[in-house]
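Cont'd.
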Amino acid sequence: EVQLVESGGGLVQPGGSLRLSCAASGFTVSSNYMTWVRQAPGKGLEWVSFIYAGGSTYYADSVKGRFTISRDNSKNTLYLQMNSLRAEDTAVYYCARKANTAMTLDYWGQGTLVTVSS
Amino acid sequence: QSALTQPASVSGSPGQSITISCTGTSSDVGAYNYVSWYQQHPGKAPKLMIYDVSERPSGVSNRFSGSKSGNTASLTISGLQAEDEADYYCSSYTSSSTYVFGTGTKVTVL
């Protein structure tokens, strides 16, 4: 069974850093296209970043230069390193897997809340 | 990349059919048959309901169907049920090799 479990969220001051983790089971992270999507309180979904199986990475303009997506194949875990955090980064962060045979996100984690506030 | 445009809310009575639109551009919705629809109940993660414009994942009710014409995609829920009350988001692959989501639609079952 495919499962994604995020962790690492919490309260951080503006300008601070946080690293989110997404532990996967039931499939191999390194063989899949993985992504982070966020949702600000009461707002819609916003794509943040993704990493191809081959390792190429892409970022939304709103986080480019501040966030870094990576993975640890030995731990089958996806990460999102977030630096220079701003109030507008406050959101629930979801990791999700792209389906093997379709351009869609078929499995999502339960999300982890990041709050940026002084 | 601007968000795809969806109506803020759509409502219907039990048993009725409703349709949610999702309007993009020739660089996303109009460019590819890679439109997905997600259902999100309060406090829960999104759930995939439709992919590749009109395909249903295993386990999703056939009351949900999708279509596309030009730069606008649509999700139709037929035989509306109380459990369908949720937020719905469309998404599309884009010519920039990224994804874009819709603004979201709140479905209310009267």
